[in-house]
Write a structure and sequence with these properties.
With 206 residues, this protein is an alpha/beta fold. The protein has two domains: 123 residues, Rossmann fold; 71 residues, Orthogonal Bundle (Arc Repressor Mutant, subunit A). Helix content is 56%, strand content 12%. It has ten helices and five strands, in the order βαβαβαβαβαααααα. Strands 2-1-3-4-5 form a five-stranded parallel beta sheet, with helices on both faces. The chain is globular, with a radius of gyration of 17 Å.
Amino acid sequence: MIEFKILIVEDEPLIAEDIAFVLKKNDYHVSGIAYYEEDAYVELEKNPDMVLLDINLNGIQSGIRIAEIINEKYQLPFIYLTSYSDKYTIEKAKHTEPSGYLVKPFSDAGLYSAIEIALFNHAQKIKQKFPELSLSIINKHLQQPISDREFELLNLIYNGKTNQQIADTMFISVNTVKKHINHIYLKIESTSRTQTMNRLRELMKK
């Protein structure tokens, strides 16, 4: 799956469906919808690229617990969605280092902006250890080498660019971007953008 995949963790079905509609309208792929904490852990195993996470699930702040698991096991960007903006809730939430915090009700434009900023900020966070990618180091560990053109695109992914932004930068169509990404995924043994970022870190460490 080449699309940017987002998991929705939200206990109110109507809100979850509204969010899914907005995401699809903006060319994001909804990897799944989880209404309960246990469902969220199952969906996380499907390798989403980002999580939209309700803090209060069925009356308890289990979203905080899910966030801790995301940080510990998956290293995914996540955005809190909540009806609460009180000091106590924000204090608990900020210690999990979310990529964003949206108070309900939020606008379509607000959700889109939060996702784009979260994607960029997460990419910058990963880049802190390895500011620059090296094509020679990466290719040294691959059976099929990354081409110069693919490496150009890979750097844009590494910098948190969306498919459309990559297409605009490289003066190619979004479909061509997706084809290039598919080839890159096969070469570095990845199935998602987040896995790609983590895989690049691993290759640069070797």
